[in-house]
């Protein structure tokens, strides 16, 4: 999700204490920065598909409790295929690619690559939705993809490069497709309703990885299962609720800028929890990717709907 510093002068409701928005944003950053660390730990005992299913089974149960407490609307029958497609891109494909990809790169490098979603959103805007993309944006996209290549090759050295790390770019692409579909087709549902049905439908699609999952859970250490439990509750459920609160009470584009803090936070957490030390080239690639994405968002008006 998956994907996401903040001057909070753009609050839509100035009566709301800004401190709540700031704290919610910091909570989201910590949750999503933990995600690659939790995945790295979970992969010690689970296969990538099993880990995705276990994580989102936990998230699904948690979201069901929230849905009962808060109340959500029923989906329209005609919207069921769309909700299934959203679940596929936001949950199933995104997290399968993410988990397999993290077998090829460090947690810190994975957090950088996952932030490349805006690059793919720009490509989708041009090639799928026929929006006009200017030279500035094309330059940002090319620089960002170059930075991603630097991250992948620099993480373990060119000689030991693992191509599986590129799957994280597939995860970023999957998330950008989800975001585009959500933006264009889901105005009939509130944020909580949409998140619930997206998580549930994506989890159902992951049941093809159920064989062997319970056995893996029994054989996993308590620390690994705790890491997966945290993955299911915090990055996969609570963070989305907190982010919905942030978006409801602040300027969307400015609040989204806070997500650029996720990679450095993830690198710091990976150093503390996993004893990972990012290679110099990963740091260089991270600067290129994040600078490109930032420039894409704050540069000249990028996309205009073709008439």
From TrEMBL:
Coiled-coil regions listed: none
Segments crossing the lipid bilayer: 21-43, 49-68, 80-98, 104-128, 135-153, 165-181, 193-214, 226-246, 258-275, 281-304
Domain EamA as annotated: residue spans: 21-152, 166-297
A Pfam family hit: EamA
Record has Protein biosynthesis as a keyword: no
GO cellular component, one term: membrane
Annotated keywords: Membrane, Transmembrane, Transmembrane helix
The keyword Iron is annotated on this UniProt entry: no
Protein name as it appears in the record: Transporter
Organism: Pseudomonas fluorescens
